[in-house]
Amino acid sequence: MACVIEKINEIIAPENLVYAKSPLTNDDIMHYCPGCSHGVVQRLIAEVIEEMGIQEQSIGVTPVGCSVFAYKYIDIDWQEAAHGRAPAVATAIKRLMPEKMVFSYQGDGDLAAIGTAETLHAVNRGENIVMLFINNAIYGMTGGQMAPTTLVGQVTSTTPFGRNVDINGYPLKITDLIAQLPGAAYVTRQSVHTAAAVRRAKKAIRKAFEIQRLNCGTAFVEIVATCSSGWKLSPVESNKWMEENMFPHYPLGDLKDSKRADSGLYRIKSK
Amino acid sequence: MAKVSGAVVVDIEKCKGCSLCVEACPTLTLMLNRSVNNRGYHFCYMQIPENCNGCANCSAVCPDSCISVYRLRIVH
After folding, report:
1. Do B6 and A18 touch (CB under 8 A)?
2. Number of folded domains in chain B?
3. Domains parsed from chain A with CATH numbers
4. Set of chain B residues whose Cβ sits within 8 Å of the Cβ of A37
5. Is the pLDDT assigned to residue A2 strictly greater than 80?
6. What is the mean pLDDT of chain A?
7. Which residue of A has its CA nearest to B46?
8. ipTM (interface pTM)
9. How far off is chain A from B34, nearest CA to CA, in Å?
10. What range does the domain containing B66 cover?
11. What's CA A162's distance to the chain center, in Å?
């Protein structure tokens, strides 16, 4: 045993460090439930901002919902927006300070329910902002009520017998809707349930920020996420449930990448 | 032959015992501890430290960024 501890102490040296949390991540303990995807996504944002060296230029807009306290966890400038209005606030910030890197961070109740108008019109105007959309198919903070993105048949506290399309309508695929708009430069749907998925999601977030640098339209990243408290499952079971039920309805991958399809589609805005 | 070995350091007080890292660990190194931290969560720890190869999958999926990973390449 002593030999093992000695060997571990030999490995734990600064020169052998492979991964440590980004210096942009504050030391506060996150208020999220155990296993919440918000923590992973906010860590990825911090890592991307650190890698791109844009800490001084970045301004995030936080929503209302579980991630309302996102401003506590990353050491950049933040602005809190009213419920659903993050894209409108982000638009104002970007137009007043075009040199800043502006992103909005929203959940599905914020972006796809109360903020649908702001979201669609901000993308349709082609605002040069990054929009991050965390879709966990439920209102997590208020107690697991049905959201527009809730799957058909999914049990929530307001649909105890499952979502019924006759009464509650169909799940809203807002990312597919946004991909149709000419103002969107990059639209993708990712997940953070495995290490490989986390690495792909990080690349997507990085690409979204790079696209903002090019001034060629809105970059929209949806993260299909879990809500273990709202779904009444353990974090590991939530990931399995998400793979089995969410991914068939919300398939992962790029929905729109104007750069790849035709570089001419990139609109360069006059300053 | 070069052998890779690694180690993880867990910030015990930040860990919430979600066990996503235990699930993500390909070498079955990590487990949740039987004892709890100050907030009452079963924190994760290296149950079989010899197995760790420093792949950093655990830190990639950790929502609370409480895992640091170290990797050492030992050349024989």
Report:
1. yes
2. 1
3. 24-259 (3.40.50.970)
4. 63
5. no
6. 91
7. A8
8. 0.92
9. 17
10. 2-75
11. 26
